[in-house]
Amino acid sequence: MYMPDIELHEATTLERAAEFKARYAPNARLLAGGTDLLVDLKARRINVDHIVSLNRIDDLRGVSQTKDGLRIGALTTITQVGNSQLVRDRFSAILDATSRMAGPQIRNVATVGGNLACAVPCADLPPILTVMNASVLLWSPEGERRVPLETLIVNVRKTILRDNEVLTAVDVPTQPPRYGAAYAKFSLRDGMAIAVASVAAGLTLNKDNTICDARIVLGAVAPVPKLVESAGTLLLGQPPGEAAFRHAAEIAMKAAEPISDVRGSADFRRELVGVLTQRALKTACERARETVA
Amino acid sequence: MTVTRTLNVNGAEYTLALSPSDTLLDVLRDKLGLTGTKKGCNAGDCGACTVLVDGETANSCLLLAAEMEGKAITTIEGLTQNGKLTPIQKAFIHEGGTQCGFCTPGMVLSATALLNRNPSPTTDEIKEALSGNLCRCTGYTGILRAVRRCDHYRGDTDPSGEAKKERTDEGGKRAKHDTVGVSIPRVDAADKVTGRAQYTADLSLPNMLHGKILGSPIAHGRVKRIDKSKAEALPGVVAVITGDDVPETMYGVSPARYDEHILAREKVRHVGDEVAAVAAIDEKTAIKALSLIAVEYEELPAVFDQMEAVADGAPQLHDRYKNNINTHVDHTFGDIEKEFAESDHVREETFTGNNVYQSPLEPHASIATWDHDGTLVLYSSTQVPHYVQYMMAHVLHIPLGKVRVIRPTVGGGFGGKAATSPLDLCSAILSKKTGRPVKMVYSREEMFHYGRGRHKQHMKFKLGVDRNGKIKAFKSEIYLDGGAYSSFGVATAYYAGSVVPTLYHFPAYKYDGFRVMTNKPACGAMRGHGVPQPRFAFECLLTMIADDLGIDPIEIRRRNAMTPNTTTINEMDIGSCEFAATLDAACEKSGWNEKHGNLPPGRGIGVGCGGFVSGAGYCIYRGQVQMSHEKGREHFQKRSIFPHANAIVKISEDGMAAVLLIGAAEIGQGSDTVLTQMCAESLGIPSSRMRIRSEDSDISPLDLGAYSSRVTLMAGHAVSRAGEDVVNKMRPYAARMLGCDEADVEARAGRMFVRWDKDTKSPTQSAIPNPQSAIADQQSATDDVAWEEVARQYFNDNGPLVGTGCYKPPDGLGGDYKGSTVGTSPAYSFGTSVCELGVDLETGKVKIDRFTDYHDCGTPINPRAVHGQVEGAIVMGASETIMEDVQYDAKGQILNPDLHGYLTMTIKDAPEIFSGIVDSYEPRGPFGAKEIGEGSTLPVLGAVAHAIANATGVWIKDLPITPEKILNALRDKR
């Protein structure tokens, strides 16, 4: 475990970052917080000679309100997200993920963009932000494109980002009334917790207390954050409650593609998916009700 | 490529030429010499490298230094201003917030960042803020207390004044001792909270090289050919050595089983087994050179499970260990068949342990250099400087007297640093070859590959009792997974049997132990050496039997509890024993009677007991200290040949300071502090007038080191006797000045005075000076004199005022059967733990809420230090019970050789702990003291396992008790 020799390119603009990255691709990586990248470099999981730092592009920092909702700049740290009054007031389900991610030292440095773009299966933000219908902005010299978050990650540590593209922000739309979301995570210890399995759920209730929209995303149990659309569909029109949630959980368990590793077997993870799905749905439902209480 | 950056560190600007790949951690340590920032894992998992960046915590191992321009970086060295400690630093000192100290700089900085933004944090906020900093010693209890009580340390008041208050005992009378029994802060605490404490890896010698060892990539194989030419050709490489370049002499721990080569000669036997070593101008070059050493292996079939390894046809690791059995113990005491036949209830159960790794926060490190006169100077992060000295002499064929071992501050050991390491050996050989100092430091991954963790034991137990739950007979059959080499394992196999009968009366006992070789890193001695897993299994079985018979689990223990002044069935001499008192106290304090049997599903309470030796009765090697390579096999004598602990105390010429010289290894457990206290007590001066030098074998006489919980008792006697020796030399002078008999002189609190009231032959209360007023009253005092004045008088006439003391364990310890020495000790500790926890019955997740522990550690020398050991042991023990396990794949590769995959409890996982001490006095201990460090681990595993069974209705009999195993057991039950 030691840092390989690298060449560091400190971009001050997106243009420069894109240029560096395209020039050295595939022998280059973007650096934001570095809490994943430096470990991967030291462990030789990633072998590149060129590191393109985004950290001098200050425009990529910060949480702001847009006309459609919330925007989080890619370089915003996990701590900054957690401290954002806007997030706390109106997008608080995100705190389920940020408050229990790694430890404070990591949260103070790790960025939202990094947590999404590293595409590590056990990452905490992709499930909850996907549930909340987030989209990401991908900038390249050819222009900016917006894609739904669920299409960003295509495999373990693989995204759709092109060589000259930079993830600049994540947008979370304003949540409708009677909407609630939650993120349930299981980890083997309480501090410095890594998800063994996680489930994010979001739902909107009709005025008659039936479910009019639901989304369930599984974390750490598939190569990518797994959007289980069938589980969401099943809940449509149903009254929220144990029976409906259990049914959704069964579908989620079937949809999971877990592996066995040092943290637990595939069977155990699948079982956790069932429990966590019900818990996330229950909390999401309670929160949905609170919005009109 | 080099870049120039100006970094602001601790308020000063440094313009530095950096490589872009330099981490902030490496720049702080290597370029700026700010070694208070520690490298514990280099992967963001431990928090030892925490610094403040613009006031917020960050792991400096995960930051590129080149990106830090324009940011204000604060390291531990930057907290103190003009030598003034911050309140949180003072709180860590006085509240027991530091032990080995390796996590302390990071902890203090995390706490500082928290308190700066939130001066009155809640307990949960403190735990959250410190959750990225791992600690292995304190159980986080003292740390949490320090942050909670930080407010008390604001302003200039010196809270240490509390310790100076006159001590009174229960009856309001003046206490018997001034220093012993007082919770003085650790003598090394101030260095540890300021980053001044220097660990081996923090040291640097002029012209120093850096070494690395090449480990085998396969678990079992023959080394066919090694080509080191490419590595030697790499610029910056100074030496490359293989098995052909090192002495053939084998080494190890148990003299009967030296089976390790310094570097592989024919075979490699586990992944990571040492094959070659490199010295280069820096560590990075050395690592690069390793990849250029071409080794051709012929891979052999390997075996990774002890039960498979003893089966017919299993791959054989060593020619000398038939069927891979390294040690076989066959002990039978009493009429086992008869007692079983007469038992009213017999239960048989099989239990399995786990391969726990000590995981000290400080990685092993060594620096070797040779003086021009041929003396090897070895700086080593070790628990056992003397045995390292002995083994270096043995392997290098030099007199032991030509080996000087320096033990810098050690960041935790727990048994993992209790043997001579490949770093010690290779650094010495590389240094000899290159003529330059060579430093070698393990990475976290290399630590796991070196191993020496807890043996995984497969335990088949059978226990018979009468209808009242009185034990009739106990039979134990244990297979210990030893890994590829013996190391401590012979002793481990014996310990697994010998310390089981010290807790309860056994009319008959049979133990069959097999230590088995497998293609994994060697296991060694970890806290509780061999005993925690059998103790876990026994405690579980005893509780199962209590449940079978409808007897309360604490009650069944009372009925069988060891009693004072007893010889156990395996001939261990129990002296003081307040085991029953620990049962009663833990029962009462925990509210056991109200809770046990009355908790809802998912809530559990459990009890476990345990105890340990207070120092091994015999030295690891036989005979006297001598040029060890010449040593033949010596006959065993049932006595200590030489003193196991030796001390010198040297009084400064003005009489104002006493310097204690002893080789006892301070590894974080607090030995420097308790030894200082005992020596001060016997000298009759305040501990504040003492210094201790325990780190250098050239300065301090032999002590066998920090293992088998021996230091308090054995080194304690040596230092007390050294102090008494000084006082005895001062007596004639004091007697002359006081006009009394020499025998009537007493030294206390920096004064010497007449001891006895001639009429009543009892201590004269009025004659004992109040330590606070002693100096002020100097003029008026007519019947006492200043201690330093007497010391000066002595010096005037005789020159140096020096006292010596030593300690030998009593002769004749143990029985006359084979292996009877293991488990012998001058004294034994006892304890009871009650664990309360919750289990999430849907996920199997265990949350340990509370521990109530009472211990018989004799009369404590420093109660706070005792509690610190207990708190640390409880968290370490609880952690190993539910989450720790070194895991291997089918080829013997470790799957979790890091602190990311090998989980230990964080502050958020640690339970709340009540640690209590029962009244006890051990006649064979100094000031009545016994051990605490290892015995306190032993009750923990069983208590946790029982509480989980109590909460879930299922017993999990294999460790660790993971959520997955709990869910599976619950499913099987349904």
Quick rundown:
Chain A has 293 residues and is of the alpha+beta class.
Mean pLDDT of chain A: 97
Q: Kindly identify the CATH topology of the largest domain in chain A.
A: Uridine Diphospho-n-acetylenolpyruvylglucosamine Reductase, domain 3
Oligomer: heterodimer
CATH topology of the largest domain in chain B: Aldehyde Oxidoreductase, domain 4
CATH H-level superfamily title of the largest domain in chain B: Aldehyde oxidase/xanthine dehydrogenase, molybdopterin binding domain
The N- and C-terminal alpha carbons of chain A lie at a distance of: 53 Å
- Largest protein interface, residues of each chain: A-B, 43 and 59 residues
Pairing-aware structural class of the strands and helices of chain B?
alpha+beta
Strand content of chain B: 15-25%
Low-confidence stretches of chain A: none
> Number of helical segments of chain A?
11
Indicate the CATH class of the largest domain in chain B: Alpha Beta
What's the gyration radius of chain A in Å?
19 Å
Care to describe what's here?
The complex is a heterodimer of chains A (293) and B (974). Chain A has eleven helices and 14 strands. Chain A is 33% helix and 25% strand. The termini of chain A are far apart. Chain A is an alpha+beta fold. Chain A folds into three domains: 7-53, Uridine Diphospho-n-acetylenolpyruvylglucosamine Reductase, domain 2 (2-Layer Sandwich), CATH 3.30.43; 62-173, 2-Layer Sandwich (Uridine Diphospho-n-acetylenolpyruvylglucosamine Reductase, domain 3), CATH 3.30.465; 179-290, CO dehydrogenase flavoprotein, C-terminal domain (Enolase-like, domain 1). The longest helix of chain B is centred in the last third of the chain and has 28 residues, at 711-738. With 974 residues, chain B is of the alpha+beta class. In chain B, strands 8-10-6-17-14-15-16 form a seven-stranded mixed beta sheet, with helices on both faces. Chain B has a five-stranded mixed beta sheet with strand order 2-1-5-3-4, sandwiched between helices. In chain B, helix 15 (489-498) links the parallel strand 19 and strand 20 (508-517).
